[in-house]
Specification:
Elements: E1 2-4, E2 10-17, E3 20-24, H1 31-40, E4 46-50, E5 62-64, E6 97-100, E7 106-110, E8 117-124, E9 127-131, H2 138-147, E10 152-157, E11 169-171, E12 205-209, E13 218-222, E14 227-232, E15 237-246, E16 251-252, E17 261-266, E18 269-270
Parallel strand pairs: 3-5, 9-11
Antiparallel strand pairs: 1-2, 2-3, 2-6, 4-6, 7-8, 8-9, 8-12, 10-12, 13-14, 14-15, 15-16, 15-17, 17-18
Length: about 270
């Protein structure tokens, strides 16, 4: 794989297959596909994906079309595609390209009452900006909190819960799986690209959580509702609003209570256990 342009971190995507360099058709091409390509080139993630021969038309065969990556693959050949065949419906006017990030992203929290909560702000292109709350959920918050050194996210806050920010709205329609190491690796609509409905009244925020010790609890589990009702230690009764299996490799709901790590609420105060 090579990126052919005046700068090393962007260009037309070319694949070397069967002793011949060729290109990739833009059908289904999106930011997830670009993330995989950029990681193969040694960059942390993709900033933009390009279509319609943005970097000029290539030559040779169009090796791949219908590419569909999850964004977590190590190699573009691990993604779904229509096979390594010369595409009959794609020409070089459909060649794809990428813009890769040279450095990891920096994020911060602003407007919160404590260091572990606030409006999410992202430093990009030498400017601090915000994230629109479209599609903003706990998986996105988990990634942000992990970037900041916290164990997990307790809440994803929409609608400028921590006040309105300023500057550009850098990201919109963020859809993380919760496994990413940076929010830049998640699916989104593109840097600086957002819906006309997005403004700073919709700035996204997070409440982060750190697990600092282990405490044993007796758990009451309601299998009919697939949720934890309560758990008791020797000194307190705790109501649990949500529970996830969380490790360095996995974030997912589970129907089994055994082995769960619990995110707890006590009278609206965040506790670390």
């Amino acid at each position: 794989i090579t990126a052919d342009s005046e700068t090393s971190n962007e260009g037309r995507l070319e694949l070397y297959y069967n002793n011949t360099w060729g290109t990739v058709c833009h059908s289904r091409w999106n930011i997830r596909d670009a993330h995989v390509v950029c990681r193969m080139l040694g960059y942390p993630f993709a900033l933009q994906y390009r279509t319609l021969a943005y970097y000029g038309e290539g030559s040779g065969p169009v090796w791949m079309s219908g590419l569909s990556c999850t964004g977590r693959e190590n190699n573009i050949t691990d993604c779904y595609h229509n096979g390594f065949t010369t595409s009959s419906h794609c020409s070089h006017s459909s060649d794809v390209g990428v813009v890769c990030a040279s450095n990891n992203l920096t994020v911060r929290l602003s407007g919160g009452s404590d260091h572990n909560e606030g409006r999410v702000e992202v430093y990009f292109n030498n400017t601090w900006g915000t994230i629109c709350d479209s599609s903003w959920d706990i998986n996105d918050a988990i990634v942000v909190c992990r970037m900041l050194g916290y164990s997990y996210a307790l809440l994803a806050r929409p609608s400028s819960y921590y006040g309105e920010g300023c500057g550009p709205i850098w990201l919109d329609s963020v859809r993380c799986t919760g496994l990413e190491s940076s929010i830049g690796e998640c699916y989104h609509s593109g840097w600086g690209v957002h819906s006309s409905a997005c403004n700073h009244r919709r700035d996204a925020g997070v409440l982060c959580f750190s697990l600092t010790a282990n405490i044993s609890y007796n758990v009451t589990y309601d299998s009919s509702r697939d949720e934890i009702e309560s758990c008791d230690s020797s000194s307190m009764s705790i109501i649990i609003s949500k529970a996830y299996v969380i490790s360095s490799k996995e974030v997912s709901p589970t129907p089994e209570p055994a082995g769960w790590l619990y995110i707890l609420h006590i009278a609206n105060y965040l506790i670390t256990i």
